Amino acid sequence: MRDMNRHVSPEPDKTFLILGEQGITFAGMNRLASSGCGVIKRFKPLRPGDKVGILMANGLPNVASLLALMRMGLVAVPLNTRLTKPELKWQVDNADCRLVLCDPSTIAQADGLGVDVLEMRQQSFNEPPSEYNEYGSMDLADDFAIVHSSGTSGRPKAAVLTYGNIYHSAQASALKLDSKQDDRWLCVLPLYHLGGLSIILRSLIYGTAIDLMPAAPFDLHAVNQKLSDHPVTLVSLVPTMLQRLLEARTRPWHHRLRLILLGGEAPSPELLQRCIAEDIPIATSYGLTETASQVATALPQLVYRKPGTVGKPLKQTQVRIIDEQGELAAPDIPGEVLVKGASVMRGYYNDSAATAKALRAGWLHTGDIGYLDQDGDLFILQRREDLIVSGGENIYPAEVEAALRRHPAVAESVVLGLPDPEWGQRVAAVIETRAGQSPSADTLMSFAREKLAGYKVPRQIAFVDTLPRTASGKLQRRKARKVFEDEKV
């Protein structure tokens, strides 16, 4: 996995990374990674197993830095560039990062995180290489990365992924997607998400090319132009992105485009029907950070024949559905989705309680609701309870609620996701105000925007005198949702 030299020796001039019109070979990237090792080592002495945050936009410094960390035996901690500084600091502290690597676009965000910060510019990789001219030995049990995942406590959990998780996930994905040596995978997803990161890792393992584009802002014209004019064979998208691309495109896409991998959330029936009508080769996928990406994937023929399915589990991956009593559910009966296999995470970093709850008897309890039909194909009915998925981004209601409660006029709040034709879901909040207080929705939105990343800020706010609660005082989220249903929002 760390051994890029496997691809350098037999095919040193094969393209690994495409950035605009620039192509970088495996041999070239090998040299850049070695230079990156030298820059990092000269800045701060680190030991194998130390954690290093990567706070960077999509680009050469991000990829070269990741490969340098792998070469040095350091554990990567991808950091979401859309988070606020308090959110970033929490993740950096939670993962015990000893260093954060940033680029010129994120240097201001990285300042003040409480750890050493090293800015990696493109010219940084022209520095003399270190003695790390060969990738070190690696055990599949070694930790590769700590990736912050969704949780129900209001804070994301830190999933520990090993090299074995990544390797087995990549091998299973290659079999499912029929990976070819001349594949060219367009990456427009951010590398701080596993959906983007996995493309880099798979291409490294397969010896294939990546066409890397900026993730933010999502440039519809540039991506459509890339899909039309360049021989891209695969692209990973969330449904919102695909819908917007289809609405904006003016020319057919390149004839070599053989697969669009859709994940992050379920595509709407309308989008599925459009793809079927226009013969768009979509593969619907279900995956989790905790499983190093894909769990199950339905290829186009199955998607067209059985809309709504995500297909059968990948090789070396098992899925079962259990009812509320923990018993196996019969076919077509919904229950909790459990996953077992070589791609399942080692656990949550520094959170033994959450690990014990999620991993039981070798099975990952996802909290997602779905069913297996008579053919063994998986259908996902609902993402983790209360989790909001908007435009492919996971939003934790408890985190937004905690931010809103910091306003002096807010006594309590319930945050939930409402259906949205463009984003899948939009964030909404029902607010119980303190006696004598009457803040406006705009006031609370502005307040939340100071505390949270923009995509987490509620787009709709309703006010009530008293939020519904059970006899024990627990908030009743489903009843709170009725505020918006009654308003026919």
Task: Please identify the structural class as seen in this structure.
Answer: alpha/beta
Count of DSSP-assigned helices: 15
The level-1 CATH class of the largest domain: Alpha Beta
Tell me the overall shape.
globular
For the largest sheet, list the strands in their spatial order: 2-1-10-9-11-12-13-14
Q: What is the number of strand segments?
A: 26
Share of helix, binned = 25-40%
Would you tell me which CATH topology of the largest domain applies? Answer: Rossmann fold
Number of domains: 2
Q: How confident is the prediction overall: mean pLDDT?
A: 91
For the report, how would you describe the main beta sheet? 8 strands, mixed
β-strand amount: 25-35%
Kindly, what is the distance between the CA atoms of the first and last residues, rounded to a whole number of angstroms? 50 Å
| Weakly predicted, low-confidence segments | none
Going by CATH, what is the homologous superfamily of the largest domain? ANL, N-terminal domain
* Name of the CATH architecture of the largest domain: 3-Layer(aba) Sandwich
From the alpha-carbon coordinates, what is the Rg to the nearest angstrom?
23 Å
Q: In short, what is this structure?
A:
This protein is of the alpha/beta class. Helix 2 packs across helix 3 (60-72) and helix 6 (163-177) packs across helix 7 (194-206).
